[in-house]
Design brief:
The complex is a heterodimer.
Chain A (H helix, E strand, L loop, with lengths): L2 H40 L1 E4 L4 E4 L3 H7 L5 H32 L5 H13 L2 H11 L7 H9 L13 H28 L4 H9 L4 H12 L1 H15 L4 H6 L11 H10 L4 H26 L10
Antiparallel strand pairs in A: 1-2
Helix pairs in contact in A: 1-13, 2-13, 3-7, 3-10, 3-12, 4-7, 10-13, 12-13
Chain B lengths: L1 H33 L21 H8 L1 H34 L5 H13 L6 H9 L16 H26 L2 H9 L4 H12 L1 H16 L3 H7 L8 H9 L6 H22 L16
Helix pairs in contact in B: 1-12, 2-12, 3-6, 3-9, 6-9, 6-10, 7-8, 9-12, 11-12
The chains are: A mainly alpha, B mainly alpha.
């Protein structure tokens, strides 16, 4: 580095500080320091009452990986399943609703709000309603419809107490809560598509389905990627659904990593193991975003001034 | 030709209404049951549409002093925290987007990494830090625990990374000719920030503000840990959870309170959604 660039960079720090410093201080104290603390704890035995921290190497990781109940592996499996099932549904659902709403001449507002309502409704409320809908007895709406209205089966299903029906309820809640968000983002992208493209397609005799398949989807590829990455990362932060609906029953078969983490930290007070689950999650998310970036070759090129 | 257009509009309407009905089932259910009056058990068979409409549950909830406290706390916390978050994040994003300094990219990568780390383990060190703040002279023996200031501080700090990331992309996309003209006239970064960047980024800043308000309005976990023991600091989500009760629940109260808690966010969405910029897609504020 030549003297001049050093000087320029030092000047840079001087000019940047008033802008960056307030954020940096807050992030440093309340985000970075806690994160470093978590990383340290993941390699230690931490007794919160006595406040003692003893280094134990990889013990926490080994103990979560080798837990005989296999809870960790079920949770990890469920996170991947959640990502694999809800992400495509949310993208398709969001894209289709956005396309339809965008094609409306009147009343777009009604549907924008209608589909967006689940997004702005608090998880606590949504959880209560879903718990009630999937209730095991005849009081649950779904059981009532299946058994008493449509007579599809003759016994009430204990939705939230079985491995696969419990997972399905968690997926449905995730899809329902997020479709509106995806729709809003796709709507913004759709409005950026030039109407000329659709005009040209119409002249060639394309119908609405052709328009959707050959114009809309290719034109919003970057947005699809954006939604996908967000949903994938979100899939590894799934937590509230599980806490409110199944609490991992039966035997952790519907658990996810974040719920396991919560359970370890705030119910069993094993902060070391909880932290190692947190570390594991962060690294997994990092790898997944990296892989997605590679697959889609959409790595943001650094443009603009610097 | 015109008929065909009508038919396709009608088909879209029908499909959308069908989809919306399916999506609205949980809301129909809440609304219907908020009008009912029952003691601790919901009606069987379940109802999606009310027989009669009565507002007893709403009246009861509004008459609760603690509901009013919760509303005031939620409004105050959400607004103050959102304003601070947006202010600090806008400043940071400008620094990271437009000023060259050593370690910029690395610090920014660190910000992004924190977004991937599950946040709620941080609550333990955050709690300890707040508790150890030496504020005895102000009569705060537990530091900022159980105080509004403590809660808002954590809200602001934990939202900075995400918002900075979002805004930085916007600021980078603004053409550099704009700032160069300011430099020519002898102005500095402060002029550029206040005179050019802020006015041009109103839509994106507004959008973030809305997202931030929505997120903080329903925040439960941090509030529970930091101010949960202080009755005067209760927020709406904490109150809802409490109404839900450990063993028995008056469902019509829970649903009535939930629906009332939704009204402010619905209004904000309705008012601002036209100007919202999402996913970094729409930005026609600058012409190249």
């Amino acid at each position: 580095m030549s003297k001049r660039t050093v000087k320029k960079n030092l000047n840079g720090i001087g000019t940047a500080l008033p802008f960056v410093l307030p954020g940096l201080i807050l992030v440093g104290i309340f985000v970075l320091y806690p994160m470093l603390f978590t990383i340290r704890i993941s390699f230690s035995n931490y007794q919160i009452v006595q406040g003692t921290i003893t280094f134990t190497g990889l013990d926490n990781f080994i103990s979560i990986f080798t837990d005989t109940s296999g809870r960790f592996w079920y949770a990890l499996r469920n996170n991947f399943l959640y990502a694999a099932i809800t992400t495509p549904c949310i993208i398709m659902g969001g894209l289709v609703t956005a396309f339809l709403v965008n094609n409306l001449k009147k009343g777009q507002m009604v549907f924008r709000l209608g589909f967006y309502l689940p997004v702005i409704t608090s998880w606590v409320i949504v959880g209560l309603v879903f718990k009630y809908m999937f209730n095991s007895s005849d009081r649950g709406l779904i059981n009532y419809l299946l058994v008493d209205v449509f007579h599809l089966t003759d016994h009430y299903i204990p939705w939230l107490l079985q491995e696969w029906s419990g997972n399905a309820a968690i997926w449905i809640m995730g899809i329902w809560k997020n479709i509106g968000w995806a729709m809003l983002i796709f709507l913004a992208a759709l409005q950026g598509i030039s109407p000329n493209l659709y005009e040209a397609a119409k002249l060639d005799g394309a119908n609405k389905f052709h328009e959707f398949r050959y114009i809309t989807i290719p034109m919003v590829k970057a947005t699809i990627f954006f939604v996908m990455v967000n949903m994938m990362i979100g899939s590894f932060n799934v937590f509230i659904q599980v806490m409110l609906l199944t609490e991992g029953k039966p035997n952790g078969r519907t658990s996810v990593l974040q719920y396991l983490l919560y359970d370890k930290a705030f119910k069993q007070f094993k902060f070391g193991e909880a932290s190692s689950i947190g570390m594991f999650t962060a690294v997994t998310v990092l790898i997944i975003t990296g892989v997605l970036n590679k697959i889609f070759h959409l790595e943001k090129t650094e443009e603009g001034e610097s | 030709m015109k008929n065909k257009a009508y038919i396709s509009q009608a088909v879209i309407w029908i499909v959308l209404i069908a989809l919306l009905l399916i999506c609205s089932v949980p809301f129909l259910f809440m609304i219907t049951n908020s009008f009912g009056e029952f003691t601790y058990v919901l009606p069987s068979p379940p109802k999606l549409f009310p027989d009669k409409i009565q507002f007893a549950a709403y009246q009861y909830i509004i008459s609760l002093p603690i509901f009013n406290i919760a509303v005031i706390n939620s409004v105050v916390n959400t607004l103050i925290a959102s304003v601070f978050v947006i202010f600090v994040s806008t400043l940071s994003a400008y620094g990271f987007a437009k000023i060259d300094f050593i370690g910029r990219e690395n610090i920014f990568k660190l910000y992004i990494f924190t977004l991937m780390m599950p946040g709620f383990l941080n609550i333990i060190p955050q709690f300890i830090t707040l508790k150890n703040m030496p504020l005895e002279i102000f009569g705060l023996e537990n530091g900022l625990i159980s105080t509004r200031a403590g809660l808002i501080l954590i809200y602001v700090a934990t939202s900075i990374c995400g918002n900075t990331f979002f805004l930085r992309n916007f600021f980078r996309a603004l053409p550099k000719e704009l700032s160069e003209s300011v430099f020519m006239d002898g102005g500095g970064h402060r002029t550029i920030f206040f005179k050019i960047i802020l006015p041009l980024s109103k839509p994106s800043i507004g959008t973030l503000m809305i997202f931030s308000i929505q997120g903080l309005w329903e925040e439960y976990f941090t509030a529970k840990v930091l101010v949960g023991s202080n009755e005067t600091m209760i927020t709406l989500p904490l109150l809802l959870q409490r109404l839900n009760g450990q063993y028995s629940t008056r469902w019509e109260w829970v649903f009535a309170a939930s629906l009332m808690a939704l009204i402010p966010v619905i209004i904000i969405f309705l008012v601002f959604q036209k100007n919202m910029v999402v996913g970094g897609v729409a930005s026609d504020s600058v012409k190249e």
